[in-house]
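testing teh design pipeline on a random one, pls ignore if ur not involved
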């Protein structure tokens, strides 16, 4: 077993693993591909392979180093994620450039993973560019993006570019069944994830993710009045809050692990400060992801109803709800309202990138959807 085993073994990923294993590790990489192409797990696998002391360049997936990298708890693997709509220049100046100039704490290399790199503002990209032009010899940067056109050409030109694609549905099913997931559960996870292997794994193997999906899918049935809509919004927000508590608990463990590793060595204050800021960004990012997950799932329900009305049962995502969806397809509400309900979810999800207030945005969205597609509409269909 290696750190690459859980990933889709496409030609591109296999070639990437071969390059890392052969020692052909560029100082900067840029992973490009649409949502669902596995940029995040691929970048983490690369970092583990680079840092693994047992199988250098391969990543055994079993040693303490690999496990900590995979859990995002290794002091020499730094994760930079957007905080709100942007990765501001201060993050690059405070959390990347100084760390890149320091020696690794325990490994031979430092790895910086910058997700959604296109969300670095121009000042942040230019600040990073200086480091990419004259990179420290013991540092590797792994950037990922699904909007290459928003990256400065000077950034892209200094990276080795790898283009990833969404994982085919049948391949996801194969990977899930290999891990003991039933054929039916694997099919549902593959269909719902729309080629996103990471999300499919979560839905199929993480009970809490499956519970959340079922909760999100129950929302359309409850939007019979503004009061019900507000109650549903409150439950979504509470579920997100509880999920963030799990993240915070893991962050406390990571903080203690870092303290145990560093002790009172030189540079520990800066490392702890960087970790605190990283945790803040992670919490904001996770909140955004969970709210987006809820809205995406609700939108998929209305799109499935439209698909059935068009006779496209093969295009239905939530195939485990086929009976309910068929009932909704006979509702008195017209197609335009169903489409608008799905679009409203997408618009609200996008608004979180502009720092929209989660409570007000979710409440307004569910009240609006309840007006467009009231839950009792199917009773009168």
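output:
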């Amino acid at each position: 077993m290696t750190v690459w085993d859980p990933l889709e073994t496409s030609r591109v990923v296999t070639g990437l693993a071969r390059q890392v294993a052969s020692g052909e590790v560029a100082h900067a990489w840029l992973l490009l591909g649409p949502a669902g192409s596995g940029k995040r797990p691929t970048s983490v696998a690369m970092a583990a392979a680079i840092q693994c002391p047992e199988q250098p360049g391969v990543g055994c997936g079993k040693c303490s180093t690999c496990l900590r990298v995979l859990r995002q708890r290794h002091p020499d693997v730094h994760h930079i994620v957007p905080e709100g709509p942007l990765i501001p220049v201060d993050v690059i100046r405070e959390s990347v450039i100084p760390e890149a100039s320091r020696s690794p704490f325990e490994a031979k290399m430092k790895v910086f993973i910058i997700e959604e790199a296109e969300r670095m503002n121009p000042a942040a990209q230019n600040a990073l560019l200086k480091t990419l032009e004259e990179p420290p010899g013991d540092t590797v940067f792994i950037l990922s993006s699904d909007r290459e056109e928003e990256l400065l050409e000077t950034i892209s030109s200094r990276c080795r570019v790898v283009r990833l694609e969404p994982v085919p549905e049948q391949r996801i099913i194969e990977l899930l069944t290999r891990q003991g997931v039933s054929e039916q559960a694997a099919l549902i996870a593959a269909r719902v994830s729309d080629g996103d292997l990471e999300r499919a794994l979560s839905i199929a193997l993480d009970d809490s993710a499956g519970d959340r999906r079922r909760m999100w899918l129950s929302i359309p049935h409850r939007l019979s009045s503004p009061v019900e809509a507000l109650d549903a919004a409150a439950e979504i927000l509470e579920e997100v809050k509880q999920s963030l508590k799990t993240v915070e608990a893991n962050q406390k463990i990571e903080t203690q692990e870092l303290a145990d590793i560093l002790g009172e060595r030189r540079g520990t204050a800066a490392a702890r400060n960087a970790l605190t800021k990283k945790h803040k960004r992670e919490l904001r990012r996770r909140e955004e992801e969970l709210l987006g997950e809820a809205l995406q799932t609700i939108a998929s329900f209305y799109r499935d109803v439209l698909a059935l009305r068009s006779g496209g049962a093969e295009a239905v995502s939530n195939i485990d709800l086929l009976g309910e969806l068929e009932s909704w397809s006979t509702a008195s509400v017209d197609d335009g309202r169903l489409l608008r309900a799905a679009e409203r979810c997408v618009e609200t999800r996008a608004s979180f990138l502009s720092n929209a207030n989660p409570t007000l945005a979710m409440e307004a969205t569910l009240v609006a959807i309840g007006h467009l597609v009231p839950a009792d509409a199917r009773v009168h269909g």
